Amino acid sequence: MKPHHLSWLSAAAALCVSASVHAQATPPAQPLKVDRAGSGPVPYVLDSQDEITRNNFGQCWRTGYWTVELAAQTKVVGSEFPAGCACDGDLMPAGTCTPKAAPVVQPPAPVPPPPPPVPTSEKVSIPTDTLFAFDKSQLTAEGRDKLKTYADQLKALNLEAVVAVGHTDRIGTEAYNKTLSEKRAASVKSYLIEQGVPAERIFTEGRGESQPTTGTQCDAKGKEGPRNKGLIECLAPDRRVDIEAVGTRR
Questions:
Q1: Distance between CA 89 and CA 205 in Å, rounded?
Q2: Which residues pair with 126 in a beta bridge?
Q3: CA-CA-CA-CA torsion for 151, 153, 154, 155, nearest 10 degrees?
Q4: What's the sign of the alpha-carbon dihedral 165, 120, 194, 124?
Q5: 87, 58 in Cβ contact below 8 A?
Q6: Which of 6, 29, 179, 204 has its Cβ near the most Cβ atoms within 10 Å?
């Protein structure tokens, strides 16, 4: 054999020795295309497509630059693992070829429930002279209109209770006025029920003439009696129905 032929065979043999192979248990299903974004040597032989050259058994051909560290740093396109994991997996540092655990997503902190609504109290005093005629317990037309407006206000509450307290002026006997005040409170309750206010939420009371608001301002109006129109007009503020509703705003 000619000398130059021997030289060529020697070089080929040297290449095979330097490009030692490492068997892989299962040939990869996809080509191993090296990410050449970074500069520097590549530990494996690449073809024109930058894919690692392998034999028919899926074994990767190393270059003379091969080191464990370089194989563990060489990125493969489309894979989270370096080239060394496919070619020399049993030589890679611990954890290099282990899938990264998915980040644990902490559930959002529970939202504390809103504080319970604070009960509110609303008190409305309606003069009786607009609800009833003098010495009467039946509601007037004007009185019914006023109570309807009030009933509409109650519907805006989560209602707990409504208390209607009837009052009279001092004309008449104490016993008579006590009964009259109770009848007036009962008339208010009946009308509120007609307007949709729950009957079981309405409570009534009559206090007669015991809680006047006029004081002594009508003393100069003359003798008490049903014919003294001046006195009756002056005592109008005492003829009232106090209505108090307790509940929370919706």
A1: 92
A2: 241
A3: 90
A4: positive
A5: no
A6: 204
Give the model confidence (pLDDT) of 119-169 as tens digits.
666 555 555 556 888 888 888 888 888 889 888 888 888 888 899 999 999
pTM: 0.51
* 175-181 own/partner pairs: CB under 8 Å, 24+ apart: 177/208, 177/209, 178/206, 178/207, 178/208, 179/206, 180/135, 180/137, 180/206, 180/208, 181/206, 181/207, 181/208, 181/209
Helix (H, G, I), strand (E, B) or coil at 64: coil
Half-sphere exposure of 54 (CA within 13 A, CB side): 22
Specify the DSSP element, H or E, that contains 190.
Answer: helix 174-194
Nearest Cα to Cα of residue 181 among 202, 106, 173? 173
User: Token pair for residue 198?
Assistant: 């729950």
Q: What are phi and psi of 11, to 5 degrees?
A: -65, -40
Question: Can you give the pLDDT at residue 127?
Answer: 54
What is the reported pLDDT for 20?
41
